[in-house]
Amino acid sequence: MKLIADSGSTKVEWCLLDYDKPVKQIFTSGFNALMLTEEEIAQYLDDELMFQLGDLAEKVTEVYFYGAGCIDEDVCRNVRRAIRQNLNVATIEAHSDLLGAARALFGHNEGIACILGTGSNSCYYNGHEIKDHVSPLGFILGDEGSGAVLGRHLIGDVLKHQLPRELCDRFLDEYNLERAAIIRRVYKEQSPNRFLASVTPFLLKNIEEPAIHRLVLNEFKSFFVRNVAQYDRYRSLPVSFVGSIAYHYRAVLDEAAAALDAKIDTVIKTPMEGLVRYHSSL
Q: Same domain, yes or no, for 68 and 149?
């Protein structure tokens, strides 16, 4: 059996394949592999995954892990070793979530793969590996188009009265937030990017408001200018997206692409279905 993992900072989706057909889906809490030691990852797997696998754990022969934070070989090695502490398998691969997105979107074909979720990322994928990559730089310096940056713009515009007053009041009432609480959540508490991204449903619900539509459209245009347009042949290559922001804001994303003379091919919410298809074809 093959076990595939799509690991993000919020959750990890696991899919167990028997003769290349999904037989079990498991969800565990998310983690960033860059932030944990080998032993911490091994303990996490023991605590959250193994009991859900149960007797099926003995039937797993291959593991393919795609994870947030898997930025270099040292991190990937820690993940592989942690998995091997829990599963006695012949094949273990650990890769970045970006390669997972590219394989899910394009399989064995080339294209520009993009992630728009809590954070954002992109790459040129040649059908086998990532050959070019524009660093996303995180939600302070980059992450254009991401949930965190959309949320940052929304909150900043509310607190600086850049949106119509009725929208500002509606936002503060709906989320029961005051200025001091927002400042504390962003500058004092952990995971400010997740907090910022958590307010994006307000944007989606009010996307017909001209000021909200403009905010989202401008941020997506920025993603294309500062990321997609940096790749050679971006106008002729297929450009595809994975992630909740891309999925829910598809119409506005298409507008932004058209403004840069690019065309979006595929948009999917999560990569798992595409990863199952990819690993079933090997």
A: no
279 within a domain of the structure (yes/no): no
Residue 90: both structure tokens together: 């012949």
Strands (E) across the chain are located at 2-7, 11-18, 21-29, 62-67, 91-96, 111-116, 120-125, 130-132, 239-242, 264-268
pLDDT per position as a tens digit, 55-96: 999 999 999 999 988 989 999 999 999 999 999 998 999 999
Q: Which two tokens stand for residue 240?
A: 């595809």
Contact, 243 vs 269, CB < 8 A?
yes
Q: How many distinct structural domains can be found in the chain?
A: 2
Give every CB contact of residue 67 below 8 A, 6+ residues apart in sequence: 5, 7, 8, 12, 32, 33, 79, 94, 95, 96, 97
Backbone angles phi, psi at 210, to 5 degrees: -55, -40
Backbone angles phi, psi at 113, to 5 degrees: -100, 135
**Residues 6 or more apart from 31 whose CB is under 8 A from it?**
7, 9, 12, 41, 44, 68, 69
3-state secondary structure of 21: strand
pLDDT, tens digit, for every residue of 28-48? 988 889 889 999 999 999 999
- Domain shared by 118 and 79, yes or no: no
- What was the pLDDT predicted at 189? 87
